[in-house]
Write a structure and sequence with these properties.
136 residues; alpha+beta; Nucleoside Triphosphate Pyrophosphohydrolase; two-stranded antiparallel sheet; metal ion binding; Nudix hydrolase 17, mitochondrial
């Protein structure tokens, strides 16, 4: 079993005041893969570099400002480096928090679902790893 208090996730402030914390997100260019876009967005918005892992899922949601529908793909990123300077440093703050804190801070339902999928994945992986150790 994974202790949720031992898992840290990175959240960033929204560019709009009072919109809470969220996970790095953004669009992707026609000449890049979704995974490359995820990595680019985390560098731009949160100033972290790492390994993009297997996709958690895809969500469809409406914009709060208009009736535009969006498709969001969420990926875990195993952070390898935290940059001192990054493109949106002056407009965003980044914060490492526990899963419990992230649940409270994230305002988007689909980000909360992605967080639960991440916890479930890490728990399943820990159980597999524990099973391997007990068979040795």
């Amino acid at each position: 079993m994974v202790d949720e208090e031992e898992i840290e996730v990175l959240v960033i402030t929204s560019q709009r005041k009072g919109k809470g914390m969220l996970f790095p997100k953004g669009g992707w260019e026609k000449d890049e893969s979704i995974e490359d876009a995820a990595l680019r967005e985390t560098v731009e918005e949160a100033g972290v570099v790492g390994d993009v892992e297997h996709k958690l899922g895809k969500w469809n949601f409406k914009s709060k400002n208009d009736d535009t529908c969006y498709e969001g793909h969420m990926f875990p990123l195993l952070v390898k480096e935290q940059l001192e300077f990054w493109p949106e440093k002056d407009v965003r703050q980044r914060l490492w928090v526990s899963v419990r804190e992230a649940r409270k801070m994230c305002q988007y339902w689909w980000m909360k679902e992605a967080l639960e999928l991440l916890v479930n994945r890490l728990t399943a992986q820990a159980n597999v790893d524990q099973g391997r150790k007990s068979n040795l």
